[in-house]
Recover the amino acids of this structure.
């Protein structure tokens, strides 16, 4: 049988301990994210693959069966696990009618001389996984879970065990004919790996499930969570108790020692390095990129939301003035119309597409503000936005979650904006100041915990959200700082409204709705004033 596979980095001469299957397209999961491999979908601020690999004992070698979006899988693993013993097999046929788990597993034949573990990339376990791998079984074993662990058991392979062994097996579909059926988690241990794969080659089947028979012991596990269907993924995501603050074309993974960001637009990657290289005292110094990821070493400290008070905020503003907001040679004025006006108008068009509201209707906000979206958006005071341009080097997303307060009392900035129009380090300093003010008035750290409310009934809109602790004191401090340094407070307040408006189409509902109506409310107040 001729295999349509390519081996990459082949260094092992003995059996591979743990095989992780990542070759398949995962077509069901593309409704969640079309551009990202399913093993890289986020859960608890980390990709599924990170959760899996982190539970595998460090002494065990890992083989990744890669195929669909293999570059993503390989680059992510090499970024996050540079010291692990691992190799990749490239499965080039993952689309044809002959593709499937069997052909992917056959690709590992050159690595397998004895036993091996096998598991898919869309299910995670707790510490139980490490214990199972360390306590290697003395015979081939499949690991199952209770039917109640998933919403739709018919989407999974089900097993009928008798006396602790496989009696019957059903590859997806109806399972009512099985007695005391269990869900096959995909995790298995194969005692005689070479014989297993040789028999798999001889059968010439797409899936390896027909190979699972009474020679396999059945063991139940209790920490398994499946993420292989949209239903299961969203069910487990809801249990996170965090609001999904992510953007559709950008994902941030917060790992113990490193921050990794996925960008759909790979042109962002090289640009993302420019600000840290330009101001190494301000930003993380160890940064890198491997398509489609940008990464930097995690800064030890607390986000400024956890450390802010009047004194520390004053210290922050002084530090920003001396270290970040320094003169720039870039032609910031030329980028202002594109960045402030054109970008906002494009975002308004996206809001019209994303949200189901009639912009010509009148809405009552929080029983107090009567607003007509079209009227307000057509009367934005662009002349205020365009005046008082102060070119400086800027961060571009300067809210407290992107400011790390280190143990020594120093600051570092993370998650900076790539550009201000065509400017890669510079911009209008008023934009950074407005970002600070916006993050004081709306505590994004609390929003990420889901601590906000949005309700709508016909044209009656109600919402609330927490502001930063000591909001009034911090605003007074910021306003005085702006007055002392000749910055335009009127412009900054208008920019805050536009920032909320621009954020709206980048986030999921109902937060996008809240941002939209809150921006309208603020624009309405500013117009009255």
């Amino acid at each position: 049988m001729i295999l349509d596979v390519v081996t990459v980095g082949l260094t092992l001469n003995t059996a591979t301990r743990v095989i992780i299957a990542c070759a398949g397209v995962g077509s069901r999961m593309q409704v969640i994210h079309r551009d990202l491999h399913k093993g890289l979908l986020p859960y608890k601020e980390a990709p599924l693959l990170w959760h899996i690999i982190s539970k595998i004992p460090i002494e065990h070698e890992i083989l990744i069966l890669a195929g669909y979006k293999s570059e993503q899988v390989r680059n992510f693993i090499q970024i996050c696990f540079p010291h692990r013993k691992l190799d990749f097999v490239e499965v080039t046929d993952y689309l044809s009618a002959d593709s499937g788990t069997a052909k992917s597993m056959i690709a590992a034949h050159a690595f397998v001389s004895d036993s091996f573990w096998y598991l898919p990339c869309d299910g995670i376990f707790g510490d139980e996984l490490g214990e199972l791998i360390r306590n290697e079984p003395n015979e081939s074993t499949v690991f199952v879970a209770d039917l109640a662990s998933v919403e739709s058991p018919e989407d999974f392979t089900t097993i009928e065990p008798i006396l602790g062994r496989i009696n019957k097996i059903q590859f997806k579909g109806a399972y009512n004919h099985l007695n005391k059926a269990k869900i096959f988690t995909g995790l298995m241990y194969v005692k005689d790996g070479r014989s297993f794969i040789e028999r798999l080659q001889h059968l010439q089947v797409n899936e390896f499930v027909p190979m699972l028979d009474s020679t396999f012991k059945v063991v139940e596990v209790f920490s398994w969570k499946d993420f292989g269907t949209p239903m299961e993924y969203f069910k487990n995501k809801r249990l996170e108790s965090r609001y999904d603050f992510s953007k559709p074309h950008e994902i941030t993974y917060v790992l113990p020692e490193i921050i990794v960001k996925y960008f759909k637009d790979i042109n962002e990657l090289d640009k993302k390095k420019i600000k840290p290289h330009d101001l190494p005292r301000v930003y993380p110094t160890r940064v890198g990129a491997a398509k489609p990821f940008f990464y930097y070493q995690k800064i030890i400290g607390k986000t400024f939301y956890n450390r802010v008070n009047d004194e520390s905020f004053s210290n922050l503003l002084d530090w920003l003035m001396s270290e970040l907001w320094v003169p720039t040679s870039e032609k910031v004025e030329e980028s202002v119309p594109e960045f402030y006006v054109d970008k906002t108008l494009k975002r308004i068009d996206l809001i019209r597409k994303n949200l189901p509201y009639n912009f010509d209707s009148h809405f009552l906000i929080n029983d107090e503000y009567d607003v007509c979206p079209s009227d307000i958006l057509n009367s934005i005071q662009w002349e205020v936005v365009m005046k008082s341009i102060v070119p400086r080097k800027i961060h571009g997303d300067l809210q407290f979650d992107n400011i790390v307060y280190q143990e020594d009392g120093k600051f570092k900035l993370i998650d900076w904006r790539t550009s201000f129009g065509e400017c890669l380090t510079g911009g209008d300093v008023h934009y950074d100041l407005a970002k600070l003010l916006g993050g004081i008035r709306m505590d994004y750290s609390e929003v990420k915990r889901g601590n906000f409310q949005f309700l709508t009934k016909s044209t009656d809109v109600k919402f609330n959200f927490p502001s930063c602790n000591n909001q009034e004191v911090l605003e007074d401090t910021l306003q005085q700082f702006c007055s002392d340094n000749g910055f335009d407070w009127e412009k900054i307040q208008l920019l805050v409204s536009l920032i909320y408006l621009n954020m709206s189409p980048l986030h999921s509902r109902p937060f996008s709705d809240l941002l939209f109506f809150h921006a309208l409310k603020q624009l309405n107040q500013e117009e009255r004033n």
About this structure: The first strand starts at residue 5 and ends at 8.
